[in-house]
Write a structure and sequence with these properties.
By secondary structure, the protein is α+β, with helices and mostly antiparallel strands. It has four helices and 13 strands. Helix 3 crosses helix 4. The chain is globular.
């Protein structure tokens, strides 16, 4: 299979097309003035707790603070929080596998009993700022590739519902189970259908490299009040 990326740069917009065997499989067009941040990961601080909304405002360096609801902390927040605290304490051998398995975050819990003002969090932008509202964020960090999405602290393998074949779903699950590291979950995307283990393994390694690079940036940036950790 031959893959090609075609980029058309115009004064007001940039168009990007992905071709496989001369067939268009992805197309994206963005205005040159746009400044998208969805997917960006920030090391930020809790600015203000809002018990009435069961949420908090977090400083991620935007003009307006980001909004984080209690439910957007994610089911595996306790595992992530334990791992992050080890990183902050300078533990060089902090392990995702050993931190995975902490108690699941209670769905009916409260923000004031979980977080405190000044607490540092790793967050990911899920919705752009709109008008007077800051960005919407989550603590469920993920790294998306073309075929796979890597989800730290999950350990679950999910397959896109658009892949209908039971045999193919089972094959993909078995392949991913054989190559994924412990302590990491994986979402198998629709375009992974029919792909060989070598292709999936290569992408999984690239996603793991993003995770490792991000954690290394966190280690180097601990002393800075507000940091953005961009995905590579």
């Amino acid at each position: 299979m031959t893959s090609e990326v075609v980029i058309d740069v115009q004064p007001k917009e940039i168009s990007i097309a992905l071709l496989e065997d001369k067939r268009l499989v992805e197309y994206q067009c963005e205005g040159r003035a746009e400044n998208f941040s969805v997917g960006n990961i920030y090391l930020a601080k809790v600015r203000k707790l809002m018990p009435g909304l069961n949420a908090c405002f977090v400083n991620v360096g935007h003009e307006r603070d980001a909004f984080l609801h209690y439910l957007d902390l994610g089911l595996h927040f306790n595992s992530f929080d334990k791992y992050f605290s080890l990183i902050v304490d300078g533990k060089k051998k902090a392990s995702v596998e050993k931190c995975t398995g902490q108690s699941i975050l209670e769905k009916d819990g409260s923000i004031q009993n979980t977080l405190k003002v000044g607490q540092e969090l790793l967050v990911q932008i899920v919705k752009e700022p709109i008008s007077t509202k800051g960005p919407r964020i989550t603590c469920e960090i993920s790294f998306a590739g073309r075929y796979l999405v890597l989800v730290p602290f999950s350990d679950k393998i999910s397959v896109s519902t658009k892949i209908k074949s039971g045999a193919e779903r089972s094959r993909l699950k078995q392949l991913v189970h054989s190559i994924k590291p412990k302590g990491f979950g994986v979402i198998i995307r629709t375009v992974a259908e029919g792909k060989k283990v070598a292709e999936l393994d290569l992408e999984l390694k690239l996603l793991m490299k993003k995770w490792e690079d991000m954690i290394e940036r966190v280690r180097r940036s601990i002393s800075t009040p507000t940091r953005q950790i961009p995905l590579l």
